[in-house]
Design brief:
It contains 15 helices and 6 strands. With 431 residues, the chain is mainly α. It folds into 3 domains: 120 residues, no CATH class; 120 residues, DNA polymerase, domain 1; 167 residues, Intergrase catalytic core (hpI Integrase, Chain A). The strands form 2 sheets. A 3-stranded antiparallel beta sheet has the order 1-2-3. A hairpin with a 5-residue loop joins strand 1 and strand 2. The longest helix has 28 residues. It is globular, with a radius of gyration of 28 Å. The termini are far apart.
Length: 431
């Protein structure tokens, strides 16, 4: 069987990504060529993994003396949208082939049992090039990065903070194969005692139970992925004692009651647009990021009705929110032409401080109010007024109704407390 050149195989990979655009005959030939190449007996093969963002991550698949090892090259094939991208892909493939050829030459020249990352390590010295834990976590994060955006997105941002804690924990050079039960137990203990790493210049608070649980779950998912790729034999999480298997903590949501909301409406603010933006969020459920980026073009007027039609920043999903008359009341005067930011006089950095200074003037308001409390207020207000869980979930733009159920539990708890107040008020004493 004639051996296909690596360069040819690499571009066959690119062809495979666009097979839906090709003729049926060419498609069959491409599939046949790939399968033919994969049957070739080679100790080291260049393979790829398709990422969420559409790129292809290149890695080496080594099989020698019954031991399989993967070496991630941190080289990526990008969609060939123009000639520059094609040139970059050609250079990337050449780099990958040079690494592969080098590793192949090392394999055939040494013929020893000490083959570094091309063989199962037998000593600390032979583990130098084995994949590190932080290296694999970074790859795991990149695979889950939101496509078509350079900003952190959802779970990706949380994984990045996990990496910071692992480094702070002392796992900077820890190999993936060294992560065992004791490592996980010690890391869990660390999470319970460490502080928030976002601002090391000030005295930070301890991590909340929900934050600890989230990082616990992500590391578990990372190790599950490593086990699937056969980079570790077993997931140490499955071997943890019962007292180390964390459970999801009961979630609580700070929100404003109707009485508290009325007091805020009546209280003046030195920054009028701050008050307008906060109350607009209370009656729409929009996050602070979406409030600050809201444009007049996003507010659609049809006859007597108005609604917001906007791509939400966090989820990158389009959301349509009908505007109540109460919500419209807190919109600034509509300019002509209706263009630009709706709330254009708010400084993002100073927003938390200004909000706290304003609401601290209301003496009867004992809660620690952040801008996100407005979103919680909208959710609990809608549910308490009889809106269905599904409707509120859609208005908030939740991917899962499970997230919305937290607010339902809050409302149910308040109902139970209200009933207890009646019992307390009308206690019957036995004569």
């Amino acid at each position: 069987m004639q051996k296909m050149h690596e360069e040819e195989y690499s571009f066959v990979i690119l062809q495979k990504e666009n097979m839906n655009l090709r003729e049926k005959g060419k498609m069959k030939r491409t599939i046949y060529t790939i399968k033919r190449y994969q049957k070739l007996k080679e100790p080291i093969k260049l393979r790829f993994k398709k990422l969420v963002n559409g790129n292809l991550s290149l890695y080496l698949d080594s099989y020698y003396q019954g031991c399989r090892t993967y070496l991630f090259l941190h080289l990526y094939i990008i969609p060939e949208i123009d000639d520059n991208c094609k040139r970059m892909n050609t250079e990337t493939i050449q780099k990958a082939l040079l690494i592969k050829n080098k590793k192949t030459m090392e394999l055939f020249s040494t013929l020893t049992t000490e083959l570094g990352d091309l063989k199962k390590p037998t000593s600390r010295e032979s583990k130098k090039e084995e994949i590190r834990l932080l290296q694999f976590v970074e790859q795991y994060a990149n695979d889950r990065k939101k496509p078509d955006t350079e900003k952190y997105h959802g779970r990706y941002a949380t994984i990045i903070t996990l990496m910071r804690h692992l480094e702070h924990f002392g796992a900077k050079n820890t190999l993936l194969s060294e992560v065992d039960v004791d490592f996980v137990k010690n890391f869990i203990d660390y999470l319970h005692t460490t502080s928030d790493l976002r601002n090391l210049n000030t005295e930070s608070k301890k991590l909340s139970e929900s934050t600890i649980y989230l990082k616990y779950c992500i590391l578990r998912s990372v190790l599950i992925e490593a086990q699937k790729k056969k980079l570790i034999k077993e997931n140490p999480y499955y071997l943890l004692p019962a007292n180390y298997k964390l459970k999801r903590p009961d979630s609580s949501r700070c929100y404003l009651t109707r009485n508290e909301l009325s007091k805020i409406i009546q209280h003046p603010c030195k920054i009028p647009q701050l008050k307008e933006a906060f109350l607009f969020s209370c009656f729409t459920g929009l996050r602070k990021s979406d409030i600050l980026e809201l444009k007049w073009e996003d507010i659609i007027k049809e006859n007597t009705k108005s609604y917001i039609n906007k791509k939400i920043k966090k989820t990158q999903r389009w959301l349509k929110i009908p505007l109540s008359s109460q919500a419209q009341q807190w919109l600034p005067p509509r300019p002509h032409p209706a263009q630009g930011l709706v709330f254009n006089n708010l400084a993002h950095a100073a927003l938390p401080k200004n909000l706290k200074n304003w609401l601290s003037q209301i003496k009867s308001l004992k809660k620690d109010i952040t801008f996100h409390v407005a979103r919680h207020t909208f959710a609990t207000l809608e549910l308490s007024l009889g809106a269905s869980l599904y409707t509120v979930s859609c208005l908030l733009g939740h991917k899962s109704i499970t997230t919305t159920q937290i607010y339902a539990k809050v409302v149910d708890k308040d109902k139970e407390q209200a009933i207890k107040l009646i019992d307390k008020k009308f206690q019957v004493t036995e004569e």
